[in-house]
Amino acid sequence: MTAAELPIGERKAQAVEEMFDRIAPRYELVNRVMTLGLDAGWRRRAVRELRLVPGARVVDIGCGTGDLCRVLERALLDAVGVDIAAGMLARAHTSAPLVRADALRLPLRDGSVDGAISGFALRNVVDIPACFDEAARVIRPGGRAVFLEVSEPPNPVLRRLHALYFQRVVPLIGGLLSDTAAYRYLPKSTAYLPPPEALLALLKDAGFTRCRRIVLGAGAAQLIIGTR
Prior knowledge:
By secondary structure, this protein is an alpha/beta fold. It has helices at 9-23, 27-34, 38-48, 67-74, 86-90, 128-138, 156-177, 180-188, 196-205; strands at 57-61, 78-83, 98-100, 113-119, 139-150, 209-216, 221-227.
């Protein structure tokens, strides 16, 4: 599958759900191996950037197996996880309540949470602007949203090394530990992501202010942050 052949619309929604159901059993293991354990620190940083007091309520959009929910709980935040893939939710290890639902149709009232967070899920939604709009709908005024996603290093040498690792090594690791087709798709799915400046503009268009970007892992990951 080339980037040009990536599914869109309902085909994408169905493909993503089926893929995550398949890879759920070893999803966390593959994440740790292919990021060399760095993803755990990136999630902790994402939670810190929420800048919320203990007891604040946070929705984890695309919660998967609950990695971010566990970090939220350790930070004494009141977490609720939402994911479309039943297989991922079935494998979750968290005491936070989990709901099977679409990221574009969150089962939450307007202004009912203090923050929203997401880990590596933006490129898997059908409509990123709609995802930002939905986050804006459920976050109270003054609350914050933090989206953790993959990125490309700005340094040309690091960018080439990162591309080689992401496009060649990650599918190999995924194939050995989990599902070859899924981990061929995941590197290509970065084509769904707009450039950082465009992501920040979309977040602003959704009604967020003080939108900013933090680069992690020498540019391998990024945080897109806004205040409602």
